[in-house]
Amino acid sequence: MGFKCGIVGLPNVGKSTLFNALTQTANAQAANYPFCTIEPNVGDVAVPEPRLDKIAAIAESAQKIPARMNFVDIAGLVRGASKGEGLGNQFLANIRETDAILYVLRCFDDDDITHVDGKIDPLADLDTVQTELMLADLESLEKRRPALEKKSKQNDKDAKLTLELVDRAIVVLSDGKPARYAEIDAEEEKAWRMLQLLTAKKVMYVCNVDEGSSADGNAYSAKVFSHAQAEGSEAVIISAQIESELALLDGEERDEYLEAIGLSEPGLNRLIRAGYSLLGLQTYFTAGPKESRAWTFQNGWAAPRCAGVIHTDFEKGFIRAETISYDDYVTLGGEQPAKEAGKARQEGKDYIVKDGDIMLFKFNV
User: Fold this and answer.
1) What is the layout of strands, in order, in the sheet containing 281-286?
2) Residue 176 pLDDT
3) Burial level of 172, CB count in 10 A (0-12/13-18/19+)?
4) Residue 150: helix, strand or coil by DSSP?
5) Which candidate, 94, 84, 181, places its Cα nearest to that of 139?
6) How far is CA 189 from the centre of its chain?
7) What is the CA 59 to chain-centroid distance, rounded?
8) End-to-end CA distance of the chain, in Å?
9) Among 82, 74, 132, CA closest to 100
10) Which of 164, 204, 319, 357 has its CA 20 to 30 A from that of 332?
11) Could you give the angle at which helices 88-95 and 122-153 cross, rounded to 10 degrees?
12) SS3 of 54, please?
């Protein structure tokens, strides 16, 4: 299980610069004109995880494999994208496949970099992009209604439920709010996700600031954070320019550079933590001489489902999970000392896996 995030925003807000930095590639052309990204760029990045380094060292693993995060860089949307303006339609489809939407908002002044609306206002930019996604959702829902109405009249239970959800979403969207504001019961969640609404996805706001504001932000980013807090979303401050420079440095040089500008870590680390928090993701580990590995799972998952992250057979034939907490594993010095100290637990199907657990699954297929 990974975290797939669609990066959206107006042209010239720093999306492709950020994407290049995060993925440490130059596949997305960063240029000072709209639509320089003419195909969605996809990149995988390793999730920074200091605990994996310690586990691998204790287990004397030949290899350590981090969890991965997936970014999709989508061309700059403009007003009218939902109606096909610019390169709108072909990119809106790519957003539907993501777990969350990352809005990159311009929070810096620079006369050399043009703004499509001629002014710097991150919340206005957000409103423009979000409105286009809402309009696209409305169009999608209205196209579905006739067929759903017909099936509902024929007493199709699934169609009736879907139609009810469609109408509920239309009411919210028509009121000028994203679909995620609709009240959905737990038993409706699956059918709701099947609608694949762009504005039903969780969102994160990335305030792209100038280098001097990278540590504490500025007046622009303060407005974004206030907005995010009011709606219960995540926001992070990143200087795409700094991140692009960090991507070119090795470990020691990167640490020295971060210290010089007053930062303790790259913006990527903050972004990933915010993404994990947004989606309720956590990490468990497997460890041994061959490899130590980090695995991503949803908070609240029981052991069999977490085993299925490795392979579906592990979930189907789950017997039990030998479990050691991260603190016990590190403090005691590994699997065998933990067993000798009585800290290796045998957990069954009802065990709710905790962040940092070191797991060994027993299964039979």
Assistant:
1) 63-65, 291-298, 281-286, 358-363, 318-324, 345-347
2) 93
3) buried
4) helix
5) 84
6) 19
7) 30
8) 22
9) 74
10) 319
11) 80
12) helix
Phi, psi angles (nearest 5°) of residue 324: -130, 130
| The token pair that represents 332 in the structure block | 């005691």
The predicted pLDDT at position 267 comes to 85
Write down the residue that tokens 């001489």 correspond to.
Answer: 289
Tokens 């019961």, residue located: 185
In the block, tokens 């996604």 appear at 133
DSSP 232-274: T-EEEEE-HHHHHHHTTS-HHHHHHHHHHTT-SS-HHHHHHHH
The residue assigned the tokens 């590639």 is: 25
Q: For residue 307, what are its two tokens?
A: 């085993």
DSSP secondary structure string for all residues of 159-212: HHHHHHHHHHHHHHHHTT--GGGS---GGGHHHHHHT--GGGSEEEEEEEE-GG
Hey, is 71 helix, strand or coil? strand
Query: What are the pLDDT digits (tens) for 265-322?
Result: 888 888 888 888 888 999 999 999 999 999 999 999 999 999 999 999 999 999 999 9
Give the E-state strand segments of the chain in sequence order.
3-8, 41-46, 63-65, 68-73, 100-107, 202-209, 234-238, 281-286, 291-298, 318-324, 345-347, 358-363
